[in-house]
Amino acid sequence: IFAVTIFGLNISSTRVFAESEFWLALVKVITVIAFIVLGLLAIFGLIPFHGAQTAPLFSNLTAQGWFPHGFLPIFTTMLIVNFAFSGTELIGVAAGETKDPAQNVPKAINAAIWRLLIFFVGTIIVISALLPFQLAGLGGDNVSNSPFVTVFNYIGIPYADDIIRFVIITALLSAANSGLYAASRMMWSLSEQKLLPGVFATLSKSGTPIVALFVTMFGAIPGLLSEQFAPETIFKNLLGVAAFTMVIVWMSICLSQFNFRRQWYRSGHTVSDLKYAAPLFPIVPILGFLFCFITCLSMAADPEMRAGFIGCLIFTALCYLSYFIFYRNKA
């Protein structure tokens, strides 16, 4: 049912996709805002919090030191953390189907940065302030043990686990919705550049890449089988592969932006000639590329993700090999 719904939203038109994504994302946005607001009220003792006789404030943040397990876990978890930020690059992907991109895309980029800081960083601060780190890390596969549910329960919100289950479902639908959009547009773009067969560039009457959507959708369906065959192992490797490829995309964006600006200056242009200029060039693309590269290496350090890491390297090598064999000579 969910697969058919997501496919229907994407095949209709870009406007229908954007509208559906807005409402799906709105559910988690409202939940996160409520979580941060209620959490801050509990932190400062303005509302009761289970087990707290006085305002908890931020004592849990430093109770066990800044890095209770050392500095290495920062790198070993960074890949999964980056996966949570995946989708921000869709701002650039959607630029080709946006009215007045020179004005709207910069607005979307700046808004996304502030929202990420508020929603992601704000949520982590609230959880870290209200819960000891030993308790906040016990989510596992049980929604009832999620730190979100724990905080809501300690504040006194009824049916907290059911609320979070509903939010998770809508968040997954949102991720699937945007993922199908991005993957099909990338396939269409590669076909337009003659890097994939021309059939993938076929558009429907509404302007959606119909063949690319079908192929992407059917390519995702086998993932459902992972629930029946070693779900934890397969899921973690799939998660690692998705995060790895996302980080590779970000590295490519950093490299492309770095090379573009260099060529832009060499051709006699100035930064004021650009409709939107990324700030702090060349520091930002260099640091972005470096940190993403370190994140990729963290996947190799995790024994449970090493198979996915090797598989990603082999797949990337095959992509380059196919390019040099079938397309570079034609170009």
Radius of gyration: 22 Å
- If helices are DSSP runs of H or I spanning 4 or more residues, what is the number of helices? 14
Strand content: under 5%
**Helical proportion, percent range:** 55-70%
Mean pLDDT: 83
Number of strands: 0
> Biggest β-sheet, characterized?
none
Shape descriptor reads: globular
* Low-confidence runs: none
Order of helices and strands: HHHHHHHHHHHHHH
CA-CA gap between termini? 43 Å
Structural class: mainly alpha
List the helices and strands and how they pair.
Layout: H1 2-12, H2 14-43, H3 59-62, H4 72-76, H5 78-84, H6 90-93, H7 101-130, H8 133-136, H9 147-155, H10 160-192, H11 210-220, H12 231-266, H13 283-301, H14 306-327
Helix pairs in contact: 1-2, 1-10, 1-11, 2-7, 2-9, 2-10, 5-12, 10-11, 12-13, 12-14, 13-14
